[in-house]
Specification:
single chain; mainly alpha; Double Clp-N motif; 2 domains; three-stranded antiparallel β-sheet; two-stranded parallel sheet
């Protein structure tokens, strides 16, 4: 799952939790913050945004394929703006930093409230976002299990599928048929696959 897909997944999850029939810019911003957060705190420059205070269940992750939902016209405009920002940087792929940068001029909704609460300006937000990829890389390094390779031992179905270069539904099929051993977190629906068990579905190419 790409970063932009993960943002969309969290945004849809936030919309569903609110009972909203469409995804708005507020949901997209929540999706961005959830994507870059650690322990429910999204660090952007000097500001720490508490997702719990915004009503976000930061422990739960959306599972299964992302459902199709309607996007508000304002949300579509935001995605278009992020695509133009990525294009200005010479990239075709929209990253979470592009989406966050697209909020720099927003004064309404959740972004407006964050600006007023933290004294954020258009320029200070863009300055902080310019370092977001660097900060995210450091965060990923800190969140590893300390192994020399920096790879976590247990993966989500999406991460396992990405590691093998297959579709996540194919991986879920392997789990259902027990072709790949999988584990469930106690008392939760979340599934994890041991990285070493992925080798069980690989076989030497003969001939």
């Amino acid at each position: 799952m790409s970063v932009s897909d993960l943002v969309a997944s969290f945004a849809i999850f936030a919309a569903k939790q609110e009972g909203s029939e469409e995804v708005t810019p507020d949901h997209i911003l929540l999706g961005c913050l959830r994507t870059i957060s650690r322990f429910g705190i999204a660090r952007i420059g000097p500001w720490g945004v508490d997702l719990e205070a915004l009503g976000v269940d930061w422990i739960r992750r959306p599972e299964g394929p992302t459902p199709k939902v309607a996007y508000s016209s304002a949300a579509v405009e935001l995605f278009d703006r992020a695509a133009r920002i990525a294009g200005a940087e010479g990239r075709r792929k929209v990253e979470v930093s592009d989406l966050l940068a697209a909020f720099a001029g927003e004064e309404r909704g959740l972004m407006g409230r964050l600006k007023r609460r933290h004294g954020i300006t258009n320029a200070s937000w863009r300055t902080a976002i310019s370092r977001i990829d660097e900060d995210a890389t450091e965060s990923r390094k800190r969140s590893t299990n300390g192994s020399e390779s920096g790879e976590r031992e247990y993966l989500t179905p999406e991460e396992a599928a990405e590691a093998l270069g297959i579709h996540v539904q194919t991986m879920r099929g392997y789990i259902r048929t027990e072709r790949v051993p999988a584990f469930r977190l106690a008392g939760e629906r979340a599934i994890r696959i041991r990285r070493s068990d992925l080798e069980k579905i690989l076989e030497p190419l003969k001939g």
